């Protein structure tokens, strides 16, 4: 083999070896991805960690249903209607229709002590309760958002922290 051919052969082998190493290292090394720390990944983890599989199915069945004031079905639902239907179907509990009335039938507790299924109440428009959701775990809750429909959301977001006014389980 002449020098020129040997050099091309070595260069080709070098490229093949480097490509193989790059492929193997990409497949073999598990690096944390940027996605693993996103809100969506954390919400998915909260869903996966639910104790009640019936609650998991209920939420996945309703996720994405659009918001409609006064709505109580898959064509549109509001926050208190969603909390009412969830509590009726999953826990066998009856709730009043309006969020401010639902807040009157809970045993209030420290938000740091919330458990799966507890209700969380917010006052976006001032001092009066005007929104309700259902606590899941890991600081996440499910609710019917006016802009995004039924969604799992992060209670640690400032938009929720500043307006959280009451939380706890339904009185039996």
From TrEMBL:
One of its GO terms (biological process) is proteolysis. The keyword Transmembrane applies. It comes from Pedobacter westerhofensis. This is Lipoprotein Spr/probable lipoprotein NlpC. The chain crosses the membrane at residues 12-29. GO terms for molecular function: cysteine-type peptidase activity. PROSITE patterns: NLPC_P60 (PS51935), PROKAR_LIPOPROTEIN (PS51257). Signal peptide: none annotated. Residues 49-171 form the NlpC/P60 domain. Belongs to the peptidase C40 family.
């Amino acid at each position: 083999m002449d020098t020129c051919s040997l050099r091309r052969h070595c260069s080709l082998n070098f490229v093949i070896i480097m490509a193989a190493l790059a492929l193997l290292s990409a497949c073999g090394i598990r690096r944390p991805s940027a996605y693993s720390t996103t809100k969506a990944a954390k919400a998915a983890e909260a869903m996966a960690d639910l104790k009640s599989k019936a609650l998991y199915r209920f939420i996945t069945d309703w996720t994405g249903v659009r918001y409609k004031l006064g709505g109580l079905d898959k064509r549109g639902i509001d926050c208190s209607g969603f909390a009412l239907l969830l509590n009726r179907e999953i826990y066998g509990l009856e709730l009043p229709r309006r969020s401010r009335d639902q807040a009157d039938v809970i045993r209030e507790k420290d938000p740091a002590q919330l458990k799966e299924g507890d209700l969380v109440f917010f006052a976006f428009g001032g001092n009066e309760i005007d929104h309700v959701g259902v606590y899941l775990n890991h600081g996440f809750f499910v609710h019917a958002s006016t802009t995004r429909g039924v969604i799992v959301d992060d209670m640690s977001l400032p938009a929720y922290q500043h307006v959280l006014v009451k939380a706890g389980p339904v009185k039996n």
